[in-house]
Amino acid sequence: MLFRLSNIGNYIVNKEDSARILLLECLLYIKHSICDNAGRGMADTIVREWIADYKSLRSAELHSFSCIIIQNNELIQAVFSILEEKRYHEEFLEPVCQQFFSFYRSREENLQNFARQFIPTLIGLYLSSVAKGNRKNVHCVEVVLLGIYNLEVIDSSGKSACLSFRIPLLSKPSIYHEPMSLSHTILSERALSTLEYSENRTINIGPYSEVEKINASNRLHVMSVLMWLYNQNIESMSTFSQMSVCKMCSRASSELIGPNYGGECSSGYNNPHPRPIARIPLSSPFLLELIHAVYFVMFNGLGSIGLQSLEELHNRAMQEMMTDVLLVI
C-alpha cells in the first residue's frame, strides 16, 4: 500500500485521543463545507477566467502558469464545484474537459498533476451517467478519460509502457539486507528449488493496449487503469481531491438506478410492477483500486470519512460476492 506507515500509529490511540481526532476531522469537514458554500457563487467566474487565461498563454509562460494553478486551492475548489453540480454542465463541462486534455497533452508535469486530481470525479460522473442512459450528456468526459488513458499506456517512443519490479527476497540483495551466504549453505534440492523460484518473482504491470473507443466490454478496464494511475500520485493530490475519492466511492458503490432510467418502459407488457432497482456496474479490479485510494485517505488525515467509504465498498463487495475484494478489506 502507498499510505505512510508512520501515520498508522496515530490511529492506535486511547478513547480521548480518538475523540479529539474525530473532532478535528469534523472541524476540517465543516471548514471545507463553509468554504465550499462561500465559493459556489464565484465558481463560474473563477473557472471562466481560468479557461480564458490558458487560451491567451504563450509557450514561454506555460511553466509559470502551471506552478501557480497547482497551488491555487480556490481554483481547484471551483473546478470541483463545476464538475459536481449539474447546473454548470451545459456551459462549462465541455470546455473544462478540453482544458484537462490540453493540460495532459502538454507533458508539463504540474499541468498533468492538476488534471490528474480530477480523475475520480470524472470517473464517478461518467459511470453514473452511463448507467442511467445519459451517455450523450457526458461525451466530453468520455473523450478526456480515453485521451488520458491512451497517453499513459504508451511511452515516449510510442511503444506500450510496462512497469516491472521485483519482490524483495532473502536470497536477493536489497537496500535492507545482504543476501545469504551460499558458501555456508548446503545446496539441497529444496534450497536449489527455492533459489530457482526466487528468480521469477517479478511483477509486471502492463503493457496495456490502446483503446479507440470506450464500450461496455472495456469500460471498467479503462477506469481501473485510470484509478491505478491516480493512486501512483495520490500523495501529491490536494485535500479536495482526496475527499472527492470518498465521494466517488460512496456514489459508485451505493447509488441506485431507478426502474425507469433512460426513459424506458419498466416492462415489456406494461406490467405495473417496476423492474428491480440496480446499481452502477463495477468490477473487482476497479474496486481494488478504489480501496487502495481509500486506505491512503484513511491514514492521511481523513480517517472517519475514509472508514465510511471503506464500509460502503465492503457492503458492495459482499452483495456481489467479490472474494478478492473482501480479502483486501
Layout: helices, strands, pairs:
Blueprint: H1 15-40, H2 43-55, H3 62-69, H4 73-84, H5 89-105, H6 109-116, H7 119-131, H8 139-152, E1 163-166, H9 189-198, E2 202-205, H10 219-232, H11 239-254, E3 256-257, E4 278-279, H12 284-298, H13 303-319, H14 323-328
Antiparallel strand pairs: 1-2, 3-4
Helix pairs in contact: 2-4, 2-5, 3-6, 5-6, 5-8, 7-11, 8-10, 10-12, 11-12, 11-13, 12-13
Structure description:
The chain is mostly helical and 329 residues long. The protein has 14 helices and 4 strands. The protein has helices at 15-40, 43-55, 62-69, 73-84, 89-105, 109-116, 119-131, 139-152, 189-198, 219-232, 239-254, 284-298, 303-319, 323-328, and strands at residues 163-166, 202-205, 256-257, 278-279. Strands 1-2 form a two-stranded antiparallel ribbon. The longest helix has 26 residues, at 15-40. The two termini are 12 Å apart. Mean pLDDT is 80; it is low at 1-15 and 260-269.
